Amino acid sequence: MTDTFISIDGGKSALRLLAVTGDRRRTGIGPGMSYRPGEDGVERTADAVRAAAAGVDLPERVAGVIAGLTAVPGDAGPRRELARRLGELFGGPALVAEDVHLAHAGALAGPGTVLCIGTGTNVLTMGAGGTYRTVEGWGPALGDRGSGYAIGLAGLRAATAALDGVGPPTALTEPFPDAVGGAGLAALQRFYRDPELVARIAGFAPVVVEAAEHDAVALAICRTAVDDLVALAASVAGRQPDAGPRVSWSGRLLDAGEPLRRRLGDGLRERGLELVAPAGSSLDGGLRLLRGEAPYAGVLERLREHGYPGRTGDDG
């Protein structure tokens, strides 16, 4: 009987699941996850995975599961508990990691730097020997430079500045009411009470990217985001000499933003780096990690031994 392996990519906007049995691939999708006061996220993460798996035909036992999560529990106890819950759900050994490790293995399948850009931002560079380092991952209040959240928030703030007459006119004022549910007090209260506020703000990023083709304000926002991404990639790649010049990305924002990719490529070339298209998705990366392919064997070993590959990899 052919083994089944499961790869899970959980972001703030959505959670995706891929089950592979030989050449057969099945996918499912569940709700995204973000931090909420007073919880470690284990229960909601398990529920999101269960929802993603509900429509997928799976055997009673699987050979291996890996979950790469934006909202991965930082403490060892909840991390182990989540892995245990996933193992029980799928009837096989389960590992829990940061989403950026799956993104790297999917996009590059080897040495280089990956920009994991979704609602938030995380950047990881890995050398040929498997040593890695990360930057960003600070979250929306402290970082997430160049992210969907950063672009969306800048776009919404530009729209309010234009409406108040303290900022330049922008086409972003037209889609603004739909994005926040209106401009009155009641609408704004509903907006700020939304438990998925961060993901909702990030949802305005594609509007900003599209408007950048004809709107100077949106274009300036996108250029700032790209410049931030270039700086992050150059910073972390410079700390890992055997990572080489390749830089790729994970996330729909750059997939759909040709002008963003063009500026990103130009900026990286000025830093001696090379933008390359992703070889595959984060879900594909999860499968590579489970197989322990080079240069990810060390990450897999640390996940199995300690349940976590480490925040920066300075000791990796």
Describe the structure.
- The protein is 44% helix and 18% strand.
- It has 13 helices and ten strands.
- The protein starts with a strand and ends in a 10-residue tail after the last helix.
- The chain is α/β, with parallel strands linked by helices.
- The protein has two domains: 4-103 and 281-306, Nucleotidyltransferase, domain 5 (2-Layer Sandwich); 113-278, Nucleotidyltransferase, domain 5.
- It is globular.
The secondary-structure class comes to alpha/beta
Overall structural domain count = 2
CATH topology of the largest domain: Nucleotidyltransferase, domain 5
Helix content: 40-55%
Order of adjacent strands in the largest pleated sheet: 3-2-1-4-5
Task: Write down the overall mean pLDDT.
Answer: 91
For the record, the CATH class of the largest domain is Alpha Beta
Number of strands: 10
Strand content: 15-25%
Query: Tell me about the biggest sheet?
Result: 5 strands, mixed
Number of helix segments?
A: 13
Order of helices and strands: EEEHEHEHEEEHHHHHHEHHEHH
What is the CATH superfamily of the largest domain?
Answer: ATPase, nucleotide binding domain
CA-atom Rg in angstroms: 20 Å
CATH architecture of the largest domain: 2-Layer Sandwich
Q: How far do the termini sit from each other?
A: 36 Å
Name the poorly predicted regions: 312-316
The general outline is globular
